[in-house]
Specification:
Helix 2 crosses helix 3 and helix 13 crosses helix 14. A 5-stranded antiparallel sheet has the order 4-3-7-6-5, sandwiched between helices. Strands 9-11-12-14-13 form a 5-stranded mixed sheet. It has a two-stranded antiparallel ribbon with strand order 1-2. The chain contains 17 helices and 16 strands. The radius of gyration is 39 Å and the shape is elongated. Helix content is 59%, strand content 16%.
């Protein structure tokens, strides 16, 4: 009988192990166990552990005239994993079942209810991470020892006491082993999922770093195809698909002959993931819903891509065999989708910034002061009779300024071209200032072919004339210097004007000035070359102001951040 009983104990514990495995694999139940004090978590836990407690009455192992049961495993686990409410509820359900259905004594029913209550109160002292198999086995051992003492106190004649104690001790062994086994399997599954999560996170980060330069260009067929190829190579999936909201953008792998980019979405699982905004796990062809009868893809996981709260597409990792989606596949797909969603959101922000900067640059190009234009025309008219050559020269300078203001120039121009426009402006300005304006230009010949952002110097010169020199009484000097220091080009525009008050200077440095000129130039420099470069303004009222513009200068190549994409220009000197 001992061998038969041992086999039955193993069978009973196998049932406990199977229940633990299914519980550990259920994301919903595990989430309830992590947060057992929420009302929505308690009902599922009560149902689960009440089922274990009640079925434990039927896992009765014969031992003489009595039976060894496993009912206490479900009751103890209810309190240990679910907390006081779950422990008390399962304890009362178990006690009620024993008293009304099994006809046991009131004392035993009360003890069962107390066991669930005590184990639930102990859960208040342990977090889910602290629920080790040893902790659960210790709690079960203490409660079962108390049950043995309870039996010893309330049993009858000595012979019956010995029989009951033998059953109680064996029940204690089974209960402690069952609780330990249940928690051991739960912890093992948790550790396995942590490993999957770590591997998925590492792989997702690797994919994100490789796809970033492409997805920052925008979410289109080209960027999606490159990203799908990278994901396909790194994940070893049988197929990788990236879709927009209404059509497929890229498909790499098996089934590519009928899942073609540019075509409308045909997979029911993809449509469902977009509509529900949730992940869709595919285990069979029926779940996938592909209308092609000979599609090789059977299983997979589809995760939506977001920008903000809006679904903009999906990513799918597909397999050619049924029921082959692993936990690792799910973790990887979720991680990739989250990181790609962040990249798409950054691309959207980049696009908005680029459009804003282009609008500001367009406004800057079109910013010809009506008073300046009116005064210039009047000056030209006055010279038409007295000095026609001078009038012709000024008219040519005005035409140069008009052409630069209304033409669509490249974002980068040579320093020589930029200085040409500035000198045209200064020639007109000298006609207004008369003999009291002197201009000094000290530019190394070696740097005149350097490419600089268009209209990066003219707003600074205009600012120096209009706000620094024009209000000044007496001789005015404007100096433009350009030189290099190691790998940096420095262009300095200084004047001996009235200077900038400290409060106004702080506003300009903070980007809060009324005009867009200086602010726009500084933002464009930082956007193109990084925060290491830009404008530096120093002023000493009433002695003048100096603005230093710095950009990278290298003899071979320079890395330029343009439109959110990192590119290298090898044929230009900066």
């Amino acid at each position: 009988m001992a061998v038969i009983t041992l086999l039955e104990i193993v069978s009973t514990l196998s049932f406990i192990a199977m229940t633990a495995y299914l519980t550990g694999r259920s994301r919903f139940i595990m989430r309830c166990a992590r947060y057992p004090f929420h009302l929505t978590s308690q009902l599922p836990l009560i149902v689960l552990f009440s089922f274990l407690a009640i079925t434990g009455n039927y896992s009765a192992l014969p031992w003489g005239q009595s039976h060894i049961t496993t009912r206490m495993i479900g009751i103890l686990l209810a309190g240990i994993a679910g907390g006081p409410v779950t422990g008390v509820s399962v304890g009362l359900i178990g006690a009620g079942y024993l008293f009304f259905m099994e006809g046991t004594s009131v004392a035993l029913a009360i003890y069962v209810a107390l066991a669930g209550t005590v184990s639930g109160l102990l859960r208040l002292r342990f977090t889910f991470q602290q629920l080790t198999p040893q902790t659960g086995a210790g709690v079960a051992l203490v409660i079962e020892l108390c049950q043995i003492c309870f039996i010893a106190l309330f049993s009858g004649p000595a012979g019956i006491v010995i029989q009951d104690l033998q059953v109680a001790i064996l029940t204690m062994v089974v209960s402690v082993t069952g609780v330990w086994l249940f928690l051991y399997i739960i912890n093992w599954i948790e550790a396995e999922q942590d490993i999957y999560g770590a591997r998925a996170a590492q792989l997702s980060l690797d994919i994100a770093s490789r796809t970033l330069p492409y997805l920052r260009q925008g979410f289109n067929t080209h960027s999606a195809t490159v990203a799908a190829r990278i994901i396909y190579d790194l994940t070893k999936a049988d197929a990788v698909s990236i879709t927009g909201r209404y059509k497929r953008l890229a498909f790499i792998g098996q089934g590519a002959e009928h899942h073609k980019p540019g075509e409308p979405i045909i997979s029911a699982a993809v449509k469902e993931a977009i509509a529900s905004k949730t992940m869709k796990v595919i285990n069979t062809p029926a779940d996938r819903g592909c209308p092609f009868p000979y599609c090789p893809l059977k299983a997979g996981v589809v995760v939506p891509l977001f920008t903000g709260n809006n679904v903009v597409g999906t990513i799918e990792l597909a397999r050619v065999k049924d029921e082959t989606v692993s936990e690792l596949d799910i973790h990887i797909a979720e991680g990739i989708a989250n990181l790609l969603s962040v990249q798409l959101q950054l691309a959207e922000i980049d696009e908005q910034r680029k459009m804003r900067e282009k609008a500001e640059l367009k406004a800057l190009r079109a910013q010809i002061n009506p008073h300046f234009l009116f005064n210039t025309i009047n000056i030209i008219m006055s010279f038409c009779r007295t000095d026609p050559d001078k009038a012709r020269s000024l008219l040519g300078n005005l035409a140069t300024l008009m052409q630069r203001g209304y033409s669509n120039q490249d974002e980068l121009v040579t320093l020589r071209d930029e200085l040409t426009g500035i000198m045209a402006y200064l020639e007109i300005a000298k006609s207004r200032f008369g003999d009291r304006l002197d201009i000094a230009v000290n530019v190394d010949a070696a740097v005149t072919t350097v490419f600089v952002p268009a209209l990066s110097l003219q707003p600074l010169v205009e600012n120096a004339l209009n706000h620094g020199l024009f209000p000044k009484l007496g001789n005015c000097l404007l100096t433009i210097d350009a030189s290099t220091e190691e790998d940096t080009l420095i262009i300095s525009i200084s004047d001996n004007g009235i200077g900038i008050p400290q409060a106004k200077l702080e506003q300009i440095k903070a980007g809060k000035s009324d005009g867009v000129g200086i602010t726009n130039v500084n933002k464009r420099l930082i956007s193109l070359f990084g925060t290491k470069y830009g404008l530096a303004i120093t002023s000493d009222p009433p002695c003048g102001t100096e603005i230093r513009l710095t950009i990278p200068f290298q003899s071979q190549s320079v890395t330029v951040r343009k439109e959110g994409v990192i590119s290298e220009n090898k044929s230009r000197r900066y």
